[in-house]
């Protein structure tokens, strides 16, 4: 079921979501200081392309908090808004509810990506 879910997800907004995470990663990697942030973006782009069958575990310390604050100011809010809008649009139909829930999971991740691990 996970494979079929990932294929349908890719069609129902996963492609766009993954591309925006990749774009954010490329923009962060322009500077040397932003490379760790860009690597995190690419890790979550992979999750955005195929989220079914994967879990996100949150944790972290003070360093994660500081990076999350910087992230939210520069990149997190636009990515979260994109995911919330697509999630709301998909939740209008009964068939789209599982995909909308995945978009809401990605919106939470867009606000707090540091200290999060994909399992």
Explain what you see.
This protein is mainly α and 119 residues long. The chain has one domain. It has four helices and two strands. The protein has a two-stranded antiparallel ribbon. The radius of gyration is 14 Å and the shape is globular. The two termini are 18 Å apart. The model has no long low-confidence stretch (mean pLDDT 91).
List keywords for this structure.
119 residues; mainly alpha; 5% strand
Order of helices and strands: HHEHHE
Q: What is the CA-atom radius of gyration, in angstroms? A: 14 Å
How many discrete domains?
1
> Structural class per helix/strand content?
mainly alpha
Give the helix tally.
4
Mean pLDDT: 91
Q: Largest beta sheet, briefly? A: 2 strands, antiparallel
Q: Percent of residues in beta strands?
A: 5-15%
**Helical amount among residues, as a percent range?**
over 70%
Number of strands: 2
N- and C-termini, Cα separation: 18 Å
Main β-sheet, spatial strand arrangement: 1-2
Low-confidence regions = none
Shape label: globular
